[in-house]
Amino acid sequence: MTQKYQAQIYVTLRPSVLDPAGTAVQSGLSHMGYTNVDQVRIGKYVEVTLNADDEDAARQQLDRICDELLANPVIENYRFDLTGS
Amino acid sequence: MKFGVVVFPGSNCDRDLVWVTQGLLNQPTRLIWHEESDLSDIDVVVVPGGFSYGDYLRCGAIARFSPVMQSTLDHARAGKLVLGICNGFQVLTEAGLLPGALVRNRDLNFICDRVPLRVERTDLIWTGGYQKGQVITVPIAHGEGSYYADADTLNELEDNQQVLFRYCDANGNATPESNANGSLNNIAGICNRQGNVLGMMPHPERASDQALGCVDGFALFEGLLKAMPAIA
Asked: From the candidates A14, A47, A72, which should be mutated to test the interface with B, based on the most B CB atoms within 10 A?
């Protein structure tokens, strides 16, 4: 009997990778007067709904999905939150 | 020598390549739709520039899983020639045929320009038509062409002389100022360890026809024929 799971996946640039888009946003914030903002880093947020036998199986599959497609391990890290319904 | 030019939804440099390999070089060339998987008749697989699958998720990320790319992996592993240009370079890194990744340009702009490149080595089939250290001018057109790899990978690339093209100034000096997009080590093009797979952000196919005012890229294609007369 499979169960439905919702994953909230966060893909972020590795700290060693420069983020010019984040820098641009920080500069915009600075123009708006938010001069106390030290750093902005932009990532991706992905919602995935999947059916799996149990939470472990869902987590394992999500790891593969992230490693193989949603994140590029050369430049990105990922983490996810998982909730069952 | 038969060329196969891969066509993904969103590719847009495919016909420019056919114009060069078929129109200028007189070599049989066919367009390969991304759902095809039989590449047995092809000598050189070219993955062209453009915006494969809309560049959704990451440039080249979705294209990697297409049937034609699975066959391109086999083609490369058999030691046959694979050339990725611009988006094609991004696809080859995503597919793991080349190390590293292409990330957003340092200076927040999409660059459409003609830039000088230094040819780093000429003992490979791709660059036999050039002189070592020669400065050539080739167009670039990309928003995410900044080459990135971790320090170990970068050292490995340099130790094995896998960098074939570097952004440089008019005198051939690879300076920070002449580094068009912020690529590590001014890298514009690299090959795999074996040398049969080349990826580059600049567009040699846009610098091959005299009508376009610059032909510095043509030697790359011509060199392939000269180096492999048996299948030419």
From this structure: A72
